[in-house]
## 1
Amino acid sequence: MTSDARPAPVKDSAPVGFQEHDHQTCVETALASVEARCSTEGLRLTPVRRKVLEMLLQEHRALGAYAILDRLRAEGFGSQPPVAYRALDFLVQNGFVHKIERLNAFVACSHPGQSHSPAFMICRKCDAVAEAQSAPAKGVLGAAARAAGFEIERTVVEAEGLCPDCTEKA
Amino acid sequence: MTSDARPAPVKDSAPVGFQEHDHQTCVETALASVEARCSTEGLRLTPVRRKVLEMLLQEHRALGAYAILDRLRAEGFGSQPPVAYRALDFLVQNGFVHKIERLNAFVACSHPGQSHSPAFMICRKCDAVAEAQSAPAKGVLGAAARAAGFEIERTVVEAEGLCPDCTEKA
DNA sequence: CAATACATGATATGAAATAACATGACAAGT
DNA sequence: ACTTGTCATGTTATTTCATATCATGTATTG
């Protein structure tokens, strides 16, 4: 058995922000932007890392580490968990990929290059994931944190619900 | 080995919102409130479920399912994963306990009875967890969701950082 | 070219979660 | 009382996610 999360409605052009778009261009642009940042910052976008990033950009939805691993194996890369996790660590550390805690899975960043604290909308039916901006530290939470003396370093914001497509079908 | 998450600074009186408080009273009140809700709503707070809830209230921090399981075993309950997961499911479903996605762990709700969409502050050093309110659907994220046609059903908001205690020590 | 950082490969294991099936406890309907 | 249905629990096995560790390789860079 291959470890793809769910049957998953495979469409040629997947949603970003749940919208149809020119996917090929979108992948290429993102990749180029990551390459640029790597070379200016002296980061090493090695073959495994690049491959993982490409896969995630291509899919445009959250993939589990083992789904990624399967694909790496298929392409002749190492096929043991650490291979995938190390590549993912690198990509996450540098903001090229985000981890979706709710799903224990990973998505390529939709706005690479921009510093951001991302928020995600996750469709519980088709697993599509869209990235948005958030500013949680600015709102009620920020106030609570200041009141409590808690220093926020990082936030996870994930909304679960139904994407437009799935809403329609229901 | 027993599966307690980390060495964990055991203190007699643990933080709620990172503050000292009369823990015994706090546990009792919470438990009473849950019992009340169960009886008015016809929910069955069985021995396992009650025990798990007590443990979480007592600890006042996030415990993993297997740490819970260890304690259940010690008390003579079933010791297989489903036992813990089922009790946790019940408690989470009914809002008596929350899952911290970031930690794959569980905490007792600090405001049982009030309907709420909780937000958490998690200390990355000592694993203390404080619960606050959030209204993520009201802010930037809500706007993005409406724009995208995404229907939010539930949100996860978790802030990671340093609690007052750990900040001091640093 | 040697020293050193960093990246990968491979083995093993730990930790989190669920599937599937059997048993028990209890209330409602006949 | 007995059967049926529902819900909770127990148990086995397996899947999925993640990391520790050690050995090996490959770039820089001094």
## 2
Amino acid sequence: MTVTTLDEEPAVPATIRDVARASGVHISTVSRTFSAPHLVNPETRVRVLACAEDLGYRPNRAARALITGRTHNIGLIVADIANPFFPPLIKAAEGQARHRDYHVFVADTNEDQAAEEELVHALAKQVDGVLLCSPRMSNSLIEQVSREVPVVVINRQVAGLPCVMMDVGQGARLAIEHLLGLGHRRIALLGGPRGSWTNREIRRAAVAAARAGGAELTVLGPNHPTETGGGAVADQVRRSGVTAVLAYNDLMAIGLIEGLDALGLRVPQDVSVVGVDDIALSRLTRPKLTTVATPTAAAGRTAVDMLLQHDSDAPRGARGRGASAGDHRTTAQVMLQTELVVRDSTGPVPPPGRDGTGA
Amino acid sequence: MTVTTLDEEPAVPATIRDVARASGVHISTVSRTFSAPHLVNPETRVRVLACAEDLGYRPNRAARALITGRTHNIGLIVADIANPFFPPLIKAAEGQARHRDYHVFVADTNEDQAAEEELVHALAKQVDGVLLCSPRMSNSLIEQVSREVPVVVINRQVAGLPCVMMDVGQGARLAIEHLLGLGHRRIALLGGPRGSWTNREIRRAAVAAARAGGAELTVLGPNHPTETGGGAVADQVRRSGVTAVLAYNDLMAIGLIEGLDALGLRVPQDVSVVGVDDIALSRLTRPKLTTVATPTAAAGRTAVDMLLQHDSDAPRGARGRGASAGDHRTTAQVMLQTELVVRDSTGPVPPPGRDGTGA
DNA sequence: TACTTCACTGCAAACCTTTGCAGCTCTCCG
DNA sequence: CGGAGAGCTGCAAAGGTTTGCAGTGAAGTA
């Protein structure tokens, strides 16, 4: 009487030793079958692979990480996953990483500096590198972190570190020029969160462009970069008497439009509004949002490539003379182009005396 | 002449051995200082902690994972990060996990079954458990996976496995009843993706509610669960002559409204539209969307709790008698309540002969 | 005083894999 | 026919941590 064994996956996973035993070779041969196939006899290789398949063997990544010093994981730290700006970037980064046999830890800091710092430390020991996306920490803190673990910074410029930036300055200039072209001369800038490089860039460029065009630019902020944050300043915008607003991002722009609507001001008839990011949502609101499109997916992919460009490098924590994390790493800084997408939330300046301005 | 040493982080990270040497104890005492503090003399403890702090020591998780068999990572597999339904869930899950000293791998399957299966296998060896969110694979595949790694299923019911569900059936019933109350008798259901449990639940409940109310329900689909998918069926909706639509999710509902608008049909005057999910976006579109609110954040937290409830369990892959992954794990199935949020996209049935229906 | 108990610490094996080195067998060339 | 070289495989150390067991000294008990 024969007993057929169930072909379930075994409860305790097969190790390299099991495979070696099953295929009659030494464990080192099994190891090489996976990590350096060209070093093992083709016949042996197929046999080993067959046994491995049979036993459902998968290399233990912890053990591998222990000896190689590389985890094949990368960390991605973002300010707020729920902000629709980030998911496309995350998605692109993750796809690119997977493509290179890496996994991605995503961590959310809730727009909090302290959480950001804590997270990056917690992650550092567990990943081969970290993508810092729209960091709110100080440059010096970022530099300190970069000595502990390889870092690529997204949406910020830090000297001596690899960075992927989007040229929001140029975008802001285009936006202001667009508004100037429509006749607007009193414009507000809705500032974003404190510590945001993007925020500074936008402001710098907007101020310059407004001045060049002979317009008056009022800066309102900093604000929380969400609909709520945008809605909260609606009244302030109304009282300021401006006819157009450039917001730090689309979410704030949309919130502002809502808020203005509640105050009886219509967009774009009474006030023109421009956002930044071109999130999917901005095509769906009414009016459709005029905005500065940023190439978020490309940024995610590029950042992963930059982080992993030295894939074959000596691992971190190699014995003997240790190379500091940033050594002989080309610290390229990439600036991606943005463009202005004109939709329905901007229009010609309203005739004077309509509201607010005249006492 | 004294030389002050730079207090930079060392390029090669401190190990438990360095801390032991610095504090004059054995490595096992250092280990216990972190993993079982009550076993070590308070004085020794503070000394060790001071040295560890000083050296910037952080335990190597790979080494720990190697011996304990627990990685302190969990995997979270979602259909599409860019779908705004998921980020709040991810965020909640991640926060809850971090709270218990776990990290989260987020993986995106692009709504693809094969990618889903591949991902869960790739992740299995690297995490202590997997959260399967809105899986598109078959139940039997899920069961097979669950033998390899502990699994909690979100948004789907699988017998014998811990599940966190949202009662979309009840939500759909409320939605249909709401439409019936407004006088609608010809209603369409916009189906979601094939393989979605949520989709089946909604359909089942909607069909039942419509029948009970003496209404005619047309099912359109399956469709891609995005704005595009919703917009694509606008013409079909118009031709069908229905006066109200229940969509699989908010994204499709919004896309449909756009599409109908392009065809000259206004919401809610000509057609009423109800979505499901209550994503942040649905409050921002015009008209504001009537929708079934699902407690996504709560689902994320609950799922993590269920996965980690046996945190002190014997690790997977313990030597000797191995317990199958699902052993003595209480396979609770949690059903979270949903509710109908009435906004501006639904209204009374239009007077007959307005459009489409009459010749 | 002698014995037990307790609190604490050290010892050493074990986790699974990678990799430099050495050894083996064959082939090829002189 | 001898030697060199190539191709393949085995050996064993190493990586950082956890943990059962044993050992130490001091305090408590009889």
